[in-house]
Amino acid sequence: MKIHTSIVAFFVLSSTLVLRSAAFPSNYLLGVAPEDEIYYKGLWSSGTIKCKDGSKTFTKAQLNDDFCDCFDGTDEPGTSACPAGKFYCRNAGHSPVSIFSSRINDGICDCCDGSDEYDGKNKCKITCWEAGKMVRDRLMKEIATFQEGVGIRAHEVEEAKISAAKDEAELSRLKNEEKILKEIVEKLKERKEQIEKAVEKERIQKEQEEKQKKEAEESESKEHKDEDKVDVPEQEPAENTDDDKAGILDNPPPGQNLKEDPAEPAVEVVHNAYASLDIGEENAAQEEEGSKVAHASDPSTGLGSKGEDATKDIDSLSREELGREIGSRWSGKNHEQQHNDFDDVKNNDETSVNAHDEENDGYDTETDEYHHQHYEEDDTEDQMGDVGDEANDDSSSSYKYEPDDEVDMSDIESTSSPSWFETIQRIVRNFLQAVNPFQTPVDTSEVENVRKEYDEASGKLSKTRSRISRLKKKLGNDFGPEKEFYSLYGQCFESKQNKYVYKVCPFKEATQEEGYSRTLLGQWEKFEESYSVMLFSNGDKCWNGPDRSLKVKLQCGLKVQVADVDEPSRCEYEAMLTAPALCLKGKLKELEDELRALNKEQPQLRDEL
Amino acid sequence: MKSVVFLHYFLGFILLVSHLNSVSSWKKEEFRNCNQTPFCKRARSRKPQHCKLIATDVIIGDGDLTAKLITPKEFQENPDEDSSGIASNPLILSLSVYENGILRMKIDEDASRNPPKKRFEVPDVILPEFESKKLWLQRYTKQVIDGDSADSFVVYLFDGYEAVLRSDPLEVFVREQSSGKRVLSFNSHGLFDFEQLRVKKEGDDWEERFRSHTDSRPYGPQSISFDMSFYGADFVYGIPEHATSLSLKPTKGPGIEESEPYRLFNLDVFEYLHESPFGLYGSIPFMLSHGRTRGTSGFFWLNAAEMQIDVLGSGWDAESSIMLPSDQNRIDTLWMSEAGIVDTFFFIGPKPKDVVKQYASVTGTSAMPQLFATGYHQCRWNYRDEEDVKNVDSKFDEYDIPYDVLWLDIEHTDGKRYFTWDKALFPNPEEMQKDLASRGRRMVTIVDPHIKRDENYHIHKEASKNGYYVKDASGKDYDGWCWPGSSSYIDMVNPDIRSWWADKFAYTQYVGSTPSLYIWNDMNEPSVFNGPERYGTVWTGDNTATWEQLRVSVPMILTLGLTGITFSGADVGGFFGNPDSELLVRWYQVAAYMPFFRGHAHHDTKRREPWLFGEHNTKLMRDAIRVRYTLLPYFYTLFREANVSGVPVTRPMWMEFPDDEATFNNDEAFMVGNGLLVQGVYTEHAKDVTVYLPKDHTWYDLRSGTAYKGGKTQKIEAADAIPVFQRSGTIIPRKDRFRRSTVQMENDPYTLVIAVDSSGEAEGELYIDDGKSYEFNKGAYIHRRFVFSNGTLTSVNLAAGTQFLSDCTIERIILLGHLSKPKSARIEPSNHAAEVELGPLQIQSKIRSSVLTIRKPNVRVSDDWTIKLL
């Protein structure tokens, strides 16, 4: 330790000497980093040491004698003689650096303490204090950002855990539903086929019978015809579906319908089961986007319990009644009536509208966002207009996008309420029990009812499946080691630069928009360089060039913002994105250490000056 | 300041057309072939002995031998089918003789008979001082050859050489006096034809069309064609610019697949093909021949019209009855030009360097470049803005890669208005240049000759107001279409307009220019003919990132060098397309030894700066660039040699080894000066490469110091670098310290590498000047010759009386092939000793060579001294 300090003292002395005298260096350890000085002590004890690469030995006289003896430059730390050499500038007041030997006495001041230019041909100003101050200020700013950012990041990591757990739970619930729905669909399908077979059989039988009793039984066949007439509207179910659904979305509370039409309670029950399903789905869809707003209430619970109440009624219905009720759902007459009911409710029934609103209160904002997403194209334009109004030419903003490529709100149907399942399961179970395919003659209305139920259920199944695949797709993403990028899913960030609007949607895509023209810069590929770069690739093809791609460099920042979009090579874009996710504790510590090291040098500089 | 003008062949109209039509590259059908070119088709279909002209009225006058060429009566009455109706006025032939073995032969219409118009003679190509080298012919001697009915006329040409005019059949040739062996001959196959100008009469339709182009030809067809024979020739070379092999392959003859002739027609060709006789950016109608027995000859036709040249395969004339001396190898060629006159130069050689010197005495030698221009240039279409420039510049420093010049392509301007800056992208051009200059770097900006027709553009305003534009047939400003859209062209043929144009480059007029800004004189194909080497550098145009194009860049540059344009190079990496890292590395490794060393890329390509391909490749490219910088003292000395003598910097091997037949058509290896042999690697995944090392020399691998015997093909390891050998008997100066650019190297000490020959001797030269001004013309330079003999190295002053000061010393002297193992050396006159030890051949080479090294002799390069090994 003693030796070490004395060498340092020697070094400090000699370097100041050199700076003042500008003479050819006679000092031996010029250009040696303090931590390296120990390596050279052998020169004083034994007179020769090895080059660091072991290739050769050299003497004290050969140290810094301006002739390269070691390939690696060990013997010439202070001259330009060895190309591989590094020169250490102390840069008191700033940070020390090791510069290439090619910079020594090249007429350019590389070290802020001027120590690299000692041949007297070039006088360097000592600028470490000023340069150091700039660096320190910048560092302090950066540290402040990091300090705050680290907190935000921690919070986001927590949130991400919760959201991810929710999504996982939702997924497993959906999977469960899928399983049940699948069973139901299979059973219905089986039943449908059985009934269809029975009907067919009956038809053939009837034909035979008719042949036999051609003339005698005319009146009987007339009766049958009447029944057929009733069934006519059922043959165009598709026409009704949409309107029906529209009605379902804003379906009035069940009690009202029951009151108005007490004769058909089961229908309403079924209706409500689906209605609650729809509302539940909406919630689920919003949750999937990472809604940070807690739900004021669980709307499905209330509806579910109502459903449960209703099921009791179902249980008590007779087989015939049940069949009729289910069948009547699809009759034109009933639908019309329903529609009217719906209009009434919409126009007059304040209570019911309010009730609905209340249920959705907790996520009104989200609903707005929803709307926003739904009309993505128009909104984008609006945004561009808004951005253009700002004085700043370049700007950035963010919004959410609908994560699924085929956005169709009416399609997003599922339920967050398991009770719905119990209800529907029970209904179907009862229904299936009630309908006996082997009974002859087969009730034709039952045939249609089963078919309807089958269509409805398989529709639900495919929607549930698409929700599952969407969630799976989301959860299949790499959100970082701590899921710190979880909240970026479903969001887009914009930056306006000159005439272009650049839109970066992590985990999805990046685009460049100019007016109505939209160019895909790339589809989400992956993170790179240990989560410090986002890569979007396979964008639109360039004429005579590569497919477009975008590399987004990530930096710690308190807000998520895109900036500095650049195209260094034709169709290869680069951008910068700041996000709290990048505010890492380890990096903060590094910065703090760096600042501490800088501050440590200050007083010494003062002394020397 | 020394003029540094970079002549660029960029993308022209051809490219534009291609852009509009399709994505594909070179379109054959857009270029006229010989069959679609009437003069070429006619000339090519003529049979030997077509020419019926005979020489009469032979006299000596004004130091020349002149004659009338007439068609004898019997042939006038029965003219050839294809020359029917053509005027048969006599032509005037003159022969002049110039110093150092140059015969000039001119044939033109007889001015005394008032032809309708004076035929075009190319101005500005022949050096004004050339006329002063004319030897005034005093007399001729008559001789009868082969029992001719008429006399032949013999004049003195050079010691041991004479020129002969044979009257009937008409023939002009050069022969050795003593042996009578022919060297070069004109019209020996009687293919000479000269279409004289005519006055248009009612019904004459001389129009010629190709695609959308029409040539009205108001004086009728006026083409000229003739055959030239090179004797004692194994190969012919030259006539750039074509992307072909160094030795010119025959285009016609038995067993030769019918090919187009070599075309000389300046074109900016989009994605040109390798292995094609098609004309590219420049046209230099100068051909050399070389053979082991005879040596080297040259022939130059000063004619700037479209030209087509056939190299005829042996036996092409088997059907003719002509008997030429057949004991020598002979290569016949057919020269066809659309217009102009016969103004030709016969160069007798007999050594390769004699021919290029003789040629250079006619058209001039290459300009002495500023030192920085010999360093590495970084270019791209386009470095987009000031930040981009700053970033690229700083990356060179970050990776410790030297470079000297950063180039800006057309996008830096305000809407392709040259001499302006895009204000958004380059708001502070002066600051940007000053910042680069603070680290010793320069900037080059592009100026194209097409001027945007925009009333608010000051250049256009002045040019249109003053009538400085080239006019179309109707007398209006020619309105063309190029990068800026509607454009017109400055009439550069007019000296006043030229001077106006020159003023535009003044710092005061070119806003945003500083003394560290230089010009890239782009799209000047029409001006590239013989002689541009006197002003600037050129390169091989818009090449492509393929191995074939890397390969063909070597013969292209060697050919340009042979024909006077030594300061040339190919875009490193290939302009079009994306080179993979291996191709790029190999390209850097070869290009580092080419006179002009610049990386460039099309804007559709990926970025390819040397640090973008991973650490290992960065290192390889850095090594390649650094080797170039260490060799700059050698290169600069060679540029001076080229400047003085016309001998190119990079040379085909046969130029240095004219007796070694194995080198004659080798164009994959080349010489840098007389000392370094460079073998490129032109294939993928090569771990080693075979290289032919010329005989009678020992060759030292410059990485390891390993000695190889010449006269053999050797297999050499080449995984990380291409093999480069120093020839025994040479001394090469280097600067082994690495810097940011040439500017910081100025005061660095030298290393001398001595490779001794079998008798223990070697010599080499070093030329130094300030690297930037014309002061060297006033004697401000150092020129030393280093001679090593009998264990003593002596520095001899080759420039007595000159004065240029340099404090530079020699820090290291490396000895290759020296047999004894001295321990020290004695230096005189200072009378001090220097240690001799074993040291590395390259300080930063991975291969740990151990070669004899004189450590720190520290003698000054400007002094006389001797260093004796003890």
TrEMBL record, chain B:
Give the UniProt record's GO annotations in the biological process aspect.
carbohydrate metabolic process; N-glycan processing
**Keyword entries, A-Z:** Endoplasmic reticulum, Glycoprotein, Glycosidase, Hydrolase, Signal
Q: Give start-end of the signal peptide.
A: 1-25
Q: Which CDD domains match?
A: GH31_GANC_GANAB_alpha, GH31_N
Molecular function in Gene Ontology: alpha-glucosidase activity; carbohydrate binding
Name all Glycoside hydrolase family 31 N-terminal domain ranges.
93-310
Q: Which residues form the Glycoside hydrolase family 31 TIM barrel domain?
A: 367-532
Q: Which residues form the Glycosyl hydrolase family 31 C-terminal domain?
A: 646-732
Q: Where are the transmembrane segments?
A: none
**What GO cellular component is one of the record's annotations?**
endoplasmic reticulum
Superkingdom of origin: Eukaryota
List localization entries.
Answer: Endoplasmic reticulum
Please state the pathway this protein functions in, per its UniProt record: Glycan metabolism; N-glycan metabolism
Q: Which family does it belong to?
A: Belongs to the glycosyl hydrolase 31 family.
Listed name of the protein: Glucosidase II subunit alpha
